[in-house]
Amino acid sequence: ASKMDPSSTTIPDVVKEFIQYFYKCYLEDNVYELHGCYENTFNKLTEKFYKNETWPDPIKEVAPLVNNDQVFLVLYSEVYYRHIYAKLNPTLQQRCDSYSNYCNLFNLILNNDGGPVTFELPNKWLWEIIDEFIYQFIQFTLYRTKLAYKFKMSEQDINELNYLQEHNEVWNAYSVLNALYSLIGRSKIKEQLQAQKKGFTQQQINEIAGEYGNLPLYKNLGYFSIIGLLRIHTVLGDFTLALKTMEDIELNKKAFLTRIPGCHFTTYYYVGCCYLMMHRYSDAIKIFSHILLFISRTKNINKSGQYDAITKRSEQMYALLTICIGLSPTRIDDILHQHIKQKFGEQLSQILKTNDFNKTVQVYEELFKFGFPRFISISFPNFTNPQLNTDALALHLKVFMIKVTNSVFNNLLRTYLSLYSTMELKKLLNFLVSDKDIKIDNLDQLRSILLSFKLNNRQVRWVDHESSSAQNNENLENTLLEGSISNVNDFDINLKNDNLISIIELKVARKFSDWFIRNTLKNYQVQDTIANADKLLEENSQTYQNNNTNSSFNSNSNKQQKNRKNKN
């Protein structure tokens, strides 16, 4: 029997009823019921009827059910193409059609002839519109790059190649960025957030927001677009600009982004990636620790449709946290440490021992490839000479590994240097040479390693938030690019006369001897008090009786004086 075209098959009655009810909720602006249809019913029907095939075609099958309402069809098409990306392997035509649908959706929202649109959508749907828009852009870029690397092409590949060359505006980086910046500008979300920080009243903020920014649809799309820019600039490799876009959003437990779990995890993941690539390892550890602790505490509560994606994202963050600990050893929460031991225990042990240089470097590369997002290039690939194309992920890995290779011996050096206040260079060299796996031949090579150790010890980090661990985890306000240079280790090193290493303690160690002496004296005083308790009780009772006698005598004398005055 020949396979039937999915578009020609009849729609099950339960699916027809769902689409009509979905459309009714949209017309009535019933956001609560829309959320139920979008989040629950759609996924249940997908598992039952469309697990391995597409949903009903928007134009051919759904349009007659919804009175050919073009606005609703654009919204339905957004979910329709997202299902294809999630469950199936989209064709080039479907990728292009999805891009065209997003263009129609954003044009409707931004350039509607009658002013701002009046329909409302659930916040989760608004976030996933932005998130999926960026995801499909990245996937199309990777798809196009993969096609450019092919040396042996089929006839279909050649046709797709010709189409891409003729239509290079499809999923163009400029158009994607322009859509996000337009949503931010139309909603005036940055001005609203700045006014909120300055303590403006709600009435003043509403005046700043204007006709569009006061509507939840525009305000929330603008807010989520800021986080979308964080993601795009990160995968494009501009980490400073990525953090700069977040300057008006505060990372704390009261932030609006925490209401949408996917938005919450995405924000912290990409902020942590930026810090790691900028070599701000201490700040990256704080970011990853905060969100991973949150996930571990809510994993039994927050099991939504994106649970698998959140689990994978958390494993990526554990991999990146392992890299951070290897480059900047820090004590972390026991829960996180236990998770790292379960997932990446062997890798962590290897990068902390550093007894095998090549193997350690290989472990860092594996963790990097697993943990970081797929970087992309903004330039159009060279289809004529594929060998001239560069892999963005390989390029960023190469740059990152330059820093890592200069830091491999830092953990071993820290172990030796922490035991001394001064040490001769030759003595340290003898320690290192005694390890057969470490190949350091001369003093000049050791000096360069020590210089690298000193430079890596100095990092830009948050200083204002170190007074309280609660602040570190819950109040990372507008300081994403701020910070001052400070030493990561508890000591610093100087080289005197080109031969003597001086180790300078930066953190004053607690004098345990004084503490024991002071508390020992307190202990003796308590023991004396207990031993002489009866004697002290007698003395206290005697003092109490004397006080009562004196007080009664004084009261009697006062009465006598008053009587004399009355007689006179």
TrEMBL record:
Keyword set, alphabetical order: Cytoplasm, Initiation factor, Protein biosynthesis
Top-rank lineage group of the source organism: Eukaryota
One annotated Gene Ontology cellular component of this protein: eukaryotic translation initiation factor 3 complex
Region of interest called Disordered, as start-end residue ranges on this chain: 544-568
Gene Ontology molecular function: any one: translation initiation factor activity
Residue spans of biased composition, Low complexity class: 544-560
InterPro entries in alphabetical order: eIF3l (IPR019382)
Pfam family for this entry, one: Paf67
The protein's name: PCI domain-containing protein
